[in-house]
Design a protein that fits this description.
The protein is of the alpha+beta class and 112 residues long. The chain is built from 5 helices and 3 strands, in the order ααβααββα.
C-alpha cells in the first residue's frame, strides 16, 4: 500500500460535508443521494454532486438500484486515506519535535 500523498483524494475528504457523508455511508452500510440528503443539511442535488466527487477518487462506488444509485464506501481506498493521514501526522510530529529541541537549545544558551 502506497502512502504517497494523493492531492485529489485529500481535496475530496477536505470538505466537511463529504466527510459526514462517508461517516453515514460507513455506519449505514451504504445509501442513496436521497437517504443521505435526509440526514444532511444540503439538498439531494448537492449530495449527488458530493457523491460524484467521492466516486471519482474511488472512495465510494455506486450501483444502480431501481431509479437511484446506491453508494458504498470502498474500504481499500478509505484505508489508503487513513494510511496517508497517519504518514502525514507522523511527519508533522517529527518536525514539531525537532522544532521543540531547537527552541529548548536556544532557551538554554541564553545568558541568565
Amino acid at each position: 500500500m502506497s502512502t504517497a500523498i494523493d492531492d485529489e483524494l485529500w481535496s475530496a475528504v477536505g470538505d466537511p460535508t463529504r466527510r459526514r457523508m462517508l461517516d453515514l455511508l460507513v455506519a449505514g452500510g451504504g445509501g442513496t443521494a436521497t437517504t443521505l440528503s435526509e440526514r444532511l443539511p444540503v439538498t439531494r442535488q448537492a449530495v449527488a454532486k458530493h457523491l460524484g466527487v467521492l466516486d471519482r477518487v474511488g472512495l465510494v462506488h455506486g450501483t444502480t438500484a431501481g431509479r437511484e444509485r446506491r453508494y458504498e464506501v470502498d474500504e481499500a481506498q478509505l484505508a489508503r486515506a487513513v494510511a496517508q493521514l497517519s504518514a502525514v501526522g507522523a511527519a508533522w510530529d517529527a518536525r514539531l519535535q525537532r522544532i521543540k529541541r531547537i527552541a529548548e537549545r536556544i532557551q538554554r544558551s541564553k545568558p541568565a
